[in-house]
Specification:
alpha+beta, 206 residues
């Protein structure tokens, strides 16, 4: 997802980070506002290729039965983070336990213990997904973090979070298949070439 850092205008004033984030959302409806390690970022609505990757990702998760009685496959659901007093993220895609609504934390976000997997699809501010969110998702002990890196034409799969870091980080290229860990809740295999192709801009016809 594309994001740009926003300078916090009320550091010494009455407004908190969450209040500022709420104000930005009111002024920019449709934009994604997150607080990562105490910094507010704002992302514009996804473009076509970005959205196409998400659809291509959802298909194998749905086919595996992960959107059912025990789990759900959701886009844009808030994840409360332990990395800061007001930190939260909104992953592009997540697989969550079906009792998610019973574990609301703050600011329409949910306890990270309910998340089995999160996915981010990179755009212009790819460092946020490849660096900052790697740290905060590991600190939140998210079992599986998948990054579709459209800049480098790779898919990253990070697993085994412990002590604030992911113990395993594997890169996959076009032509390879990614079989996700059993902790997701079902056997899911992703076609890397298909995901990367979905994320590429195509020339307009005519």
């Amino acid at each position: 997802m594309s994001a740009a850092a926003v300078e916090h205008p009320f550091d010494n004033g009455p407004a908190s980070l969450l209040e500022t984030a709420d104000l930005i959302m009111e002024r920019l409806p449709g934009y994604r506002v997150e607080i990562i390690e105490g910094n507010i970022t704002v992302a514009p609505p996804a473009n076509g290729p970005h959205a196409s990757v998400l659809t291509s990702l959802m298909i194998p998760f749905l086919a595996a039965g992960l959107h059912g009685p025990d789990s759900e496959v959701l886009q844009g659901i808030g994840l409360w983070l332990p990395s800061g007093p007001a930190d939260y993220a909104i992953p592009d895609l997540a697989v969550v336990d079906s009792d998610l609504l019973e574990h609301e934390a703050e600011f329409n976000c949910y306890d990270p213990a309910c998340f089995r997997l999160v996915v981010e699809v990179t755009s212009s501010n790819y460092n946020n997904d490849l660096k900052n969110k790697v740290r905060v998702y590991a600190q939140a002990a998210i079992p599986v973090y998948v990054i579709v890196d459209r800049r480098s034409d790779r898919v990253h799969v990070l697993t085994d979070p412990a002590d604030g870091e992911y113990g395993s980080h594997t890169l996959y290229a076009a032509g390879q298949q990614v079989t996700l860990p059993d902790s997701v809740g079902a056997k899911v295999t992703l076609d890397v070439a298909e995901l990367l192709a979905a994320g590429r801009p195509t020339a307009r016809k005519g």
